[in-house]
Amino acid sequence: MGKLDGRVALVTGAGRGQGRAHALALAASGAAVVALDVDGADTTAAYPLATASDLARTVELVEQAGGRAHAITADIRSSDEVDAAVSETLELFGRVDVLVANAAICACAPFGELDDEHFSDVIATNLTGTFHCLRAVVGPMTAQQFGRIVVVSSMTGRRGNPNLAHYCASKYAVIGLAKSLALEVAASGVTVNVMCPTSVDTTMVHNEANYRLFCPDLEHPTIDDVRPRFASLNPMGIPWIDPDVFTAAVLYLVEDDGFVSGATLEVGAGISALLT
Hints:
Helix content is 43%, strand content 14%. The chain is an alpha/beta fold. The protein has 2 domains: 8-203 and 240-266, 3-Layer(aba) Sandwich (Rossmann fold), CATH 3.40.50.720; 206-239, no CATH class. Strands 3-2-1-4-5-6-7 form a 7-stranded parallel beta sheet, sandwiched between helices. Strand 5, helix 5 and strand 6 form a beta-alpha-beta unit. The longest helix is centred in the middle third of the chain and has 29 residues, at 116-144. The termini are far apart. The relative contact order is 0.14.
């Protein structure tokens, strides 16, 4: 018996990386998982986004482990597509109990070179897209008097970061979004919390543009070149962390009996100790 037996969990950005790890863990805890992601959408991200094939693989992995999963392709920048995805979830499963708002993109540029398209695209995905997801589930969750919402922010949502102003702004903003909603639904059986990961061992970190950002002195930096530079970003000297570590934090917030809400759980390899 899992703690989430009978529950239905919607995970955005579930095609790979953190989202896939969250989907697998929620299914292992007993939830039926609705895995949502784009199909290679056109964005300003510095790396290719997940595809329908990636999403199908997530569903396959859940089912191979004995769980239940259903894939929905949608772009969270579109409120219509998000609303349709939640409607489909309700039609198939009759309820939605958990939302892990994980989908996001990242791109880097010096502040003075950050153009309108890049800024708007990151905000549209990371902030407005997250808003679309929260708004779409809050009605069904409050009606059933139960819900667990976890917004995935970032340690860059807790401090500034050179060359990532738009990303930092979006990740700061979703914390305020989540805390505000937590207050509105505090008496309804719905909790809303935030998980802030440090660098995750995924494509968002491992791409050529990011490597060049951290190694501007090298023409073609490799993973071995960037490892010590990433490690210098936190007191523990850890360059990046496996997604499963952050999934454990998400599960803690999802499986809580309803007494933790409006919290920001930082999994930052010691960075939290540097913050005021």
